[in-house]
């Protein structure tokens, strides 16, 4: 294997490495933030055996508890410990940002989300309903000392602040950052990846964007867009395990049922890169639309909501599949070397691509 190198940050994207997926064109940033209003922030912990973090995804920068975007969940394989998904599936809305972190830090991150919501809505749990924090996770144990329980509420709050206060709202750091710091994917270093597709409907421009936390795939089974398999220098004979979290955002007006249909196509993108959603892998997609929102204090009995003509929904299915596939490759290309707990490490895809 060639020496492990860290590529120029400007080139650490799948598309720059020649790994564009599908026929649809990306948005301006080729990121989930191409959907107007969506913001992403990270808090990264990198200290010896502690290699972990938190990533925050905000559908909009306002009060999410008061202004809830329509949302949906689809579970491809439920080997996971996320929280808040049951209520999203039942009620079809989000009322907090979505936090991503490691498996044993879900509770801590949920408490941070609750405090964040109460700070902006002092009536929570008293004069009005409680709040449903949504935290999704992957097990970064091989690279991170997960038993250290290193993630704190302050770290989760820092990821939220980073999302809200970033000077460049469209920028999304990818690779070994935030929740992706300690993740592995197909035997390589995994992490955070993102991609988007631009759509034209009734003459208007829309976007569908995806962000993934990639920590899945059987080593040696990674497929590139042209079908080539990427071998590992020292392949491991192990089952597919880990997890992948797929967050999808769009400004296309969809209802809860349509969103679930769209995000289910994340599975197509995951299959294209070589996954079959193994027994020990938690493969979960969550999606939201910024075009339909439900006011917490709405008093009208009948609410006007727009929805897509389903004769046009194949375009979104295609966009979801392509963006998920490219976002996973984005995480792999962007990942930088991490040496973590007990000296564990993973090779970086960027180091072996020239030889593939």
TrEMBL record:
Enzyme class: hydrolase
PANTHER family (UniProt xref): BLR5678 PROTEIN (PTHR36512:SF3), D-AMINOPEPTIDASE (PTHR36512)
Entry keyword annotation includes Protease: yes
Domain of life: Bacteria
Bilayer-crossing regions: none
Keyword Protease (UniProt): yes
A GO MF label: aminopeptidase activity
Pfam families named in the record: Peptidase_S58
Enzyme Commission number: 3.4.11.19
Protein name: D-aminopeptidase
Cross-referenced InterPro entries: ArgJ-like_dom_sf (IPR016117), Peptidase_S58_DmpA (IPR005321)
Protein family (similarity comment): Belongs to the peptidase S58 family.
Keywords: Aminopeptidase, Hydrolase, Protease
């Amino acid at each position: 294997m060639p020496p492990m190198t860290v590529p120029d940050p400007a080139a650490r994207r799948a598309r720059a490495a020649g790994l564009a997926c599908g026929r649809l064109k990306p948005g301006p940033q080729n990121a989930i933030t191409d959907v107007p209003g969506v913001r992403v922030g990270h808090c990264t912990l990198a200290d010896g055996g502690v290699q972990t973090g938190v990533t925050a995804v905000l559908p909009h920068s306002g009060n999410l508890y008061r202004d809830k975007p329509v949302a949906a969940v689809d579970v491809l394989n439920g080997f996971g410990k996320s929280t808040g998904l049951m209520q999203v599936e039942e009620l079809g809305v989000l009322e907090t940002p979505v936090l991503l972190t490691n498996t044993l830090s879900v509770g801590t991150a949920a408490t941070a989300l609750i405090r964040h919501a109460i700070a902006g809505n002092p009536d929570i749990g008293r004069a009005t309903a409680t709040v449903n924090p949504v935290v999704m996770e992957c097990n970064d144990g091989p690279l991170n000392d997960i038993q250290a329980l290193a993630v704190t509420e302050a770290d989760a709050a820092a990821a939220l602040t980073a999302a809200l206060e970033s000077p460049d709202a469209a920028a999304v750091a990818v690779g070994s950052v935030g929740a992706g710091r300690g993740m592995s994917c197909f035997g390589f270093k995994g992490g955070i990846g993102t991609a988007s597709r631009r759509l034209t409907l009734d003459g208007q421009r829309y976007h569908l964007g995806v962000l993934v936390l990639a920590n899945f795939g059987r080593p040696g089974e990674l497929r590139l867009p042209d079908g080539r398999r990427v071998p590992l220098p020292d392949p491991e004979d192990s089952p597919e395990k880990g997890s992948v979290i797929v967050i999808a955002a769009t400004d296309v007006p969809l209802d809860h049922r349509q969103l679930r249909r769209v995000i289910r196509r994340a599975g197509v993108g995951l299959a294209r890169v070589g996954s079959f959603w193994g027994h020990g892998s938690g493969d979960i997609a969550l999606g939201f639309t910024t075009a339909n929102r439900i006011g917490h204090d709405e008093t009208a009995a009948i609410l006007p909501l727009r929805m897509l003509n389903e004769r046009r929904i194949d375009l979104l299915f295609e966009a979801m599949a392509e963006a998920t596939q490219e976002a996973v490759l984005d995480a792999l290309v962007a990942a930088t070397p991490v040496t973590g707990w007990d000296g564990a490490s993973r090779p970086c895809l960027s180091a072996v691509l020239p030889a593939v």
